[in-house]
């Protein structure tokens, strides 16, 4: 019996790769033009807004022969919204002070701000940050840099590196427009996080000492197993890194591919596979990967008990893009997680990384859910199970 598939992703790069992987399975998947199906096995691979979560929750409670699987959980704001995640970490560390997150998640402060006029009040709530910013104004100390991030935006939107409260005030004053009624206006963001900026990133001379971060694909399935995919990407800035306190050049500091629009470099210079990078010993690579797996395991160990901010479903799976930074001592820091990651930033030269991600997803998650045996298709890149609610990994 075949599996009816309703596939509709806005990104053509992603949509075509998924379609190609499903069509390779010798007719096992029946790609539909409509979301209506009378079959007993149905796979919905859709944008978040197009998924019928009421139906998923209802079927998750019923006992019948119909099997439906969707590609997203409904509630996961505790992972994806930066302010919610920061609050989760604070609560988790109060219970688990020995958690790996204590030393592998940057110092983070939450700022609730609806207008620049209320910045003083917001900083009084974040008084520890306020005190550090005041210290940063003294001439006889080495100032601590911070980075501002909007809680609900991605793709490097509204990132700003600063040292003092006056710099922060200037940023908000320049960005806010009282006459701007646009729903996407910065005035509607309200929640921000401010993190201690990691000013000593790992730099590689082979790549002109350009800063980079790691994009790690994490797969959550059902209720709840977590896999880490070892097809890890290294996303590079366009220009060599420097720690100039007087200026913030996005092409030196921001490593998201979407922020490199003005870059003179080509795709192959901006996106590489982590395990093929030069100037990194294999033992160091493996140690970095172990740190990544332990951090991810601990995140979901804590989140799985926070049902108001993270609710896995037994008839769903989801792919997340986790971002990590490595410092010069090869210590790994978790930065943020994104749902529906932008796969097209991988480009055409490395699209095999994404294709094998989807092939592993079909083999280890989709087929077993519908009762089919794994195909055992050989891929160079693999899934690594790091968390299983039913077992101790």
UniProtKB/TrEMBL annotation:
<dbReference type="Pfam" id="PF03133">
    <property type="entry name" value="TTL"/>
</dbReference>
<dbReference type="InterPro" id="IPR004344">
    <property type="entry name" value="TTL/TTLL_fam"/>
</dbReference>
<protein>
    <recommendedName>
        <fullName>Tubulin-tyrosine ligase</fullName>
    </recommendedName>
</protein>
<dbReference type="GO" id="GO:0000932">
    <property type="term" value="C:P-body"/>
</dbReference>
<dbReference type="InterPro" id="IPR027746">
    <property type="entry name" value="TTL"/>
</dbReference>
């Amino acid at each position: 019996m075949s599996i009816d598939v309703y596939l509709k992703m806005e990104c053509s790069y992603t949509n075509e790769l998924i379609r190609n992987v499903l069509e390779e399975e010798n007719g096992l998947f029946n790609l539909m033009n409509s979301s209506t199906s009378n079959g007993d096995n149905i796979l919905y691979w859709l944008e978040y807004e197009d998924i019928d979560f009421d139906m998923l929750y209802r079927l998750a409670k019923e006992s019948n022969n119909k099997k439906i699987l969707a590609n997203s959980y409904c509630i996961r704001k505790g992972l994806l919204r930066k302010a919610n995640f920061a609050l989760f970490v604070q609560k988790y560390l109060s219970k688990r002070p020995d958690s790996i997150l204590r030393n592998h998640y940057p110092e983070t402060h939450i700022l609730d701000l609806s207008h620049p006029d209320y910045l003083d009040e917001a900083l009084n709530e974040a008084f520890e940050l306020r005190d550090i910013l005041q210290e940063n104004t003294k001439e006889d100390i080495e100032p601590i840099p911070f980075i501002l991030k909007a809680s609900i935006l991605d793709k490097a939107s509204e990132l700003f590196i600063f040292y003092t409260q006056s710099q922060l005030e200037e940023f908000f004053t320049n960005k806010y427009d009282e006459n701007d009624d646009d729903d996407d206006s910065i005035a509607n963001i309200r929640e921000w996080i401010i993190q201690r900026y990691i000013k000593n990133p790992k730099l590689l001379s082979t790549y002109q000492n350009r800063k980079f971060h790691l994009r790690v694909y994490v797969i959550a399935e059902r209720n709840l197993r977590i896999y880490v995919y070892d097809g890890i990407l290294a996303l590079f800035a366009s220009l060599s890194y420097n720690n100039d306190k007087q200026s913030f050049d996005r092409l030196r500091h921001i490593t998201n591919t979407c922020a490199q629009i003005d870059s003179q470099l080509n795709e192959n210079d901006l996106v590489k596979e982590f395990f093929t990078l030069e100037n990194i010993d294999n033992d160091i690579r493996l140690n970095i990967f172990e740190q990544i797996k332990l951090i991810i395991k601990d995140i979901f160990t804590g989140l799985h008990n926070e049902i108001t901010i993270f609710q896995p479903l037994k008839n769903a799976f989801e792919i997340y893009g986790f971002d990590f930074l490595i410092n010069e001592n090869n210590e790994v820091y978790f930065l943020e997680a994104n749902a529906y990651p932008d796969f097209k930033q991988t480009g055409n030269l490395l699209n095999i990384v994404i294709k094998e991600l989807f092939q592993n997803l079909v083999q280890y998650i989709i087929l077993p859910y519908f009762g089919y045996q794994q195909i055992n298709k050989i891929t160079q890149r693999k899934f690594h199970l790091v968390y299983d609610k039913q077992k101790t990994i």
